[in-house]
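Hi support team,

I'm opening this ticket because the web form for multi-chain structure prediction keeps timing out on my end. I have pasted the exact lines I submitted so you can reproduce it. The total is 587 residues across two entries, so I didn't expect it to be a heavy job. Is there a limit I'm missing, or should I split the entries? Thanks in advance, R.K.
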Amino acid sequence: MLDRPSDQNHYQVLEISEAATAEEVQSAYQRAKEIYGSDSVVSSSILTPEERREILERVTEAYHTLIAGESRRLYDRSLAERTRSSGEAETPGTESYPRFIAGTSPSPSPSYPRLVEIPPRSGETSDRPKVTLGVKEEASGAFLRKAREAAGVDLRSISQETKIGVTMLGYIEEERLDRLPAAVYLKNFVQQYARFLGLEDERVARSYLARIRRLQFQSGDR
Amino acid sequence: MKTLGSNPKIQVSNGACGVSPSLFEGPRVEPEALNGAGFSGGGIAVAPALSTVSIPRPAEARPLPVGRSIVAVGGGKGGIGKSLITSSLGICLARRGRRVVLIDADLGGANLHTALGLAPPKLSLADFINRRVSSIDDVIMETGIPNLGLISGAHDYLTASNLKYFQKTRLLNRIRDIKADFIFLDIGAGISFNIVDFFLLAEAGLLVVVPEPSSVENAYRFLKMSFYRHLWSAVRGNGTRAVIEQAMDEKNRQGIRTPFDLLEAVERKDAEAGRSLKARAQTFRPRLIINQIRYPEDERLGPSMASVCRKHLGIDIDCLGSVQYEDVVWQAQRRKKPFMLVFPDSQAGRSLERAAVNLLRPSQG
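Hello R.K., no limit was hit. The queue was backed up. Here is the completed structure from your submission:
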């Protein structure tokens, strides 16, 4: 069974192998656009227009990342890092991640830090968060800040516990599209942040990433 | 040469009926012979172009796996050609020397006999269920096509009853006792538990879809319901069962919209149950056939549905192929002739032949 759509990597999104040629990436992109297009019989009866739009955004992001040699190389490295980092708990820095969207990303540092395993929820915060994510609510940066402030903690406390830099935590709250790291890192960070506050970490991270993808798409920063 | 049934006019070359039949050597049938015993609608002329019909040799050839299989053919919607698909696949396999029995388990509208060009039979599955006959073999009627038997529909009984799960299991056990290589169950339209359970109790579930929004929508609903029922039937704990039952209600308040949500919800409550359920989920692998395609782009419907199912439902399905919408299908029905016997060289006939071959292949992955 695959991961849920929001957790699938770019290759899974386009249903291609990691060895796919540019032509295969192109053809998979066309096929996906056909499947999730507005007049598609295949997807309209199972997905809402909103879901299809989100999927098309992910498809577009995957295409733009994988079709260009440099951004694909960076993305492949981040995937490899994620695989290698499984089970390790090394502290990532704040400035050296590949960009969230790799298509126009600045050159990252030669080596990327590993993702940390999400620690159990800290005892510093209340078990029951004062702010929770509603069923239909989107996890935005403002929501995270509101939840943090309601819990009475500052970014430094979260940073000390999660080892995520204060600057990066600030970028997450501010939704700084130009500074956020690649999705694999961002998801991990948001999960840790949410878990620290006693929120549903998986759901919050998923929702936050979907929002960032949409904002990226809308801003044309691909 | 071999005589087909009791009709001396039906001459069959025995390419497929030997001990080790070649996969693509179909017997030849003289069409005029179809107007005889065992076939209703006698006297209707067969088109001259069909003076001799034979099964073509498809491009790919693979050995048939050995062993008996029960194939349940469903679709969630009526009027999409389940009976045509069932009868045609059955005929394809029977013509390759396999013993095939078709069972009309369409709870609402049994008409498989019509697709085979037969008059309504005197005995049906209901006679076995009601114990008017002692053995299920007593209600198998020979169709006149070598190796192909039929148990006619029992709608008069089954629509009036609500078979319990164990009754369905027991019926299926009796069906398993039938001496045949392949048993096809035409389970009719709808997504009631009766229908879904027949679909799940078979070794292979085959879903028929036509390129129409309502059919595609029903197919997805059928797949989801079958998948949830498949999981539910393997669970013992009441808590997990309750979560699955909530998921079956598409408007549930727990926000469970997809199997991913369901597995996550179960895992949250009971990690061990979540792991078991994930393992169980891997064993659900239905097959799909697209019927009545009219345009080239319709050929992509099957693979596209498989893609959507995999990514958004977490369900792997195998697409057996697409069957063209052709006037000859209607002509065969109008003449009350089995389509695969009178128009095997049509596009639809060749596609059905390929689908039969694909059905015999083990599931991909």
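A quick check on our side: Residues 1-65 of chain B have pLDDT under 50 and may be disordered. Let us know if the file doesn't open in your viewer.
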